[in-house]
Design a protein that fits this description.
The structure is a single chain. The chain is of the alpha+beta class. The chain has two domains: about 5-140, ph1033 like fold, CATH 3.10.590; about 180-300, no CATH class. The protein has helices at about 120-125, 130-140, 180-190, 230-235, 260-265, 285-300; strands spanning about 5-10, 30, 45-50, 55-60, 65, 80-85, 90-95, 115, 195, 200, 205-210, 225-230, 240-245, 250-255. Strand 13 and strand 14 (about 250-255) form a beta hairpin. About 30% of the residues are buried.
Length: about 300
């Protein structure tokens, strides 16, 4: 395994309010030089994000940023952000913090950044197999997840009669977008913690969406981006949702197929949850909606 350390870090922002000197769950952890272990946390380490009572998710630190020091802290402490959003994995439900209590050093129980015992954390992984994808990225070995057992996150039980699902790993080459965390942070500064379609939303449920696919234009342009709830983002990318920019306010347009679903049909022709002065550029949205309508007509949805 690579030279990595496992840590639990305490989320200080219970309301997911993004500020220059606060946490952003699923993206970064803010800490200062007054916190014990601040020098030990490094790029490449694995972090488990926790609240006072629960585990929220996990990620690999890919960048540590030193922030400018607020005037009140000049000469007293330095401020840092540990960015982990590129590999963030949110647990399907909040797990009790007690699940990893045995992995803490007893002397570190009151610390915001707590080192975790690798062997005991791997025991946690064996029970909660949803973390295996992350560990495969870290290069962790000797994690046996092939034994059929209850999936403690979903509550599902593997049937003895069911066909076994192959386990193990395959080699993969992974491309990581440069600047994605900064792009996301800039969108939060512009729009706050809100989906452009559905409105106010927890930060960790939001995606930083490129209106022009990143595979087509590998640039981070704030005028070509929006914050979208993760499910809305997927529907936008699959041409099931568009934005009508004719007239103001701009309107959400859902495919006829989507309007059959009660959970989303009320969003059709809803005004965007953005101030008009914050609207992004129109060109990509116009082209995207034209493509949406073409696809809907081809599928007989018109």
């Amino acid at each position: 395994m690579a030279d990595r350390t496992f840590w639990s870090i305490h989320n200080n922002d219970q309301n997911n309010v993004v500020t220059p000197y606060g946490d952003n769950i699923g993206e970064w952890y803010h800490y200062t030089s007054n916190v014990q272990n601040y020098r030990q946390l490094k790029e490449g380490d694995v972090v488990l994000v926790r609240t006072r009572y629960h585990l929220l998710g996990t990620g690999i630190v890919h960048y540590i940023e030193q922030l400018s020091t607020p005037p009140a802290d000049e000469g007293k402490k330095q401020h840092y952000r540990a960015h982990y959003g590129l590999t963030w994995y949110e647990f399907s439900k909040e797990l009790p913090l007690q699940l990893i209590k045995d992995a803490w050093n007893p002397k570190h129980r009151q610390m915001s950044i707590r080192r975790l015992d690798e062997g005991r954390i791997l025991e946690f992984v064996r029970r909660y197999g949803t973390w295996s994808q992350l560990l495969s990225l870290t290069g962790t070995k000797d994690v046996d997840l092939t034994t059929p057992e209850k999936d403690n996150l979903s509550g599902a039980v593997t049937s003895d009669e069911a066909e076994a699902i192959p386990g193990g790993y395959v080699a993969a080459s992974v491309k990581v977008r440069r600047g994605q965390a900064q792009f996301r942070g800039a969108l939060f500064e512009r729009y706050g913690s809100a989906c452009a379609v559905t409105g106010s939303c927890p930060a960790h449920a939001l995606d930083a969406a490129h209106l022009t696919p990143y595979s087509v234009r590998s640039e981070h342009d704030i005028e070509d981006g929006l914050l979208l709830r993760a499910d809305i983002h997927r529907l936008f990318d699959s041409y099931e949702v568009g934005i009508d920019t004719t007239g103001k306010p701009w309107k959400v347009e859902m495919s006829p197929k989507l309007r059959r679903y009660s959970a989303v049909k009320e969003l059709h022709r809803k005004s965007l949850s953005l101030s008009e002065e914050l609207y992004p550029g129109t060109k990509t949205l116009v082209e995207h909606l034209m493509r949406c309508r073409e696809i809907w007509a081809q599928e007989g949805q018109g």
